[in-house]
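INTERNAL AUDIT FORM
Audit reference: QA-55
Scope: verify that the stored structure record matches its stored sequence.
Auditor: D.O.
Record contents follow.
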Amino acid sequence: MGLFRWFARKLMMIMGHAYVWLDKRVQYSDEEVREVLGLAIDQDLQTSSRYELCRLIEAEFKVPKDSFWSLHSTQKIRFAAQQIREMKKPSKFEMGY
């Protein structure tokens, strides 16, 4: 691994830890948690921590504990995007199986 890539990954890790630390201390407004991009958010999810939300995703998608939590942000988005594609594929019933 090249020096730049190593440095970039270390910096991303540090920034990720800083983000989580800051996120724990920020009070979000009702508007920020009640709705996201026009999608109403359930009350229990509005009050869940970042870690709790990651644990829910891990449970729902049956991935090992802390595996989603430990991913970098872009990897989380990539995982979600792929899961959406998988969910939108025709079902076996729709395909005539």
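Auditor finding: record pair retrieved intact. The chain is about 60% helix and 5% strand.
Action required: none
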